[in-house]
């Protein structure tokens, strides 16, 4: 005999046979009060991510570098002083200090992986450091690139590094540096050994008086050029008053007309080969080279020239060589202009020296 059972259904107590009531009760219980599963839990093991990463990175480092390369890197890391390590750009500051301290505490590095135990050395940094130790010339390439960019800023028209090499190391024996002012033009003729072959100035006061006729400039500048020695390059000073000052417009016009005449008359082969013999050099760059700048203002180069003249006599290897047969004349010329501060004369010599030292000798290395 089936015993009925009472269950609350639809808001009322109703009578169900016992087997059916038992099934309904179980269903209601499971839907309202879910039991915790009795299946065994899936245990996820704890992984120290940094440890695993370090192990994998260490294995990768071994694959990236040959045994010979690893030996070279470890030799530097285990023997270089703090100062020597700082010679590598990536090891400057705290990193080099940390390497030395790690060596003191734990002994020499046994493998490249151990470098990642040093503070500040993550995987990518470690690879970069190893490459920089193996290829220190990378910094030299960057320096050459910077020098090439500097060269383009210093000299106009722009000349590439390779052209500088080709011209200045194969075909060029000398340059003439020219600096013009409102009353005079000065030039200095120097060869590749920085020997002063010629150095003088000439007056042209009448150009600033009158209507700035092109024909007058042509006659005057042609006459001055006839006195200049022949050279492979002619370097002009690139400077001038600001367009923002209207009162200086006549001076600015004079400078531009003089520069245009020099470019046209000295570029004798441009029509044939398209190569510029005449270049312009930034005035402030020369000032910075000789530490003559105070802010944006360039000061007189008289004292620098005076020192160069003295060193030519007193030193065995002077910065600039004045031939013995001309040194007396040059010193007398300098003394005669010392009270008048003839800046064009001083600047023409300094510009020639700066051109060789900045634009030429830097490309040789």
From TrEMBL:
Subcellular localization, as worded in the UniProt entry: Mitochondrion matrix, Mitochondrion nucleoid
GO cellular component, one term: ribonucleoprotein complex
GO biological process, one term: regulation of oxidative phosphorylation
Transcription as UniProt keyword: yes
InterPro entries: RNaseH_sf, RuvA_2-like, TEFM
SUPFAM superfamilies reported in the protein's UniProt record: RuvA domain 2-like (SSF47781)
Principal cellular location given in the protein's record: mitochondrion
Keywords from the named record: Mitochondrion, Mitochondrion nucleoid, Transcription, Transcription regulation, Transit peptide
GO molecular function, one term: transcription elongation factor activity
Pfam families: HHH_3
PANTHER family assigned: TRANSCRIPTION ELONGATION FACTOR, MITOCHONDRIAL
Role: Transcription elongation factor which increases mitochondrial RNA polymerase processivity. Regulates transcription of the mitochondrial genome, including genes important for the oxidative phosphorylation machinery.
Subunit structure, interactors included: Interacts with POLRMT.
Stated family: Belongs to the TEFM family.
Identification of the protein by name: Transcription elongation factor, mitochondrial
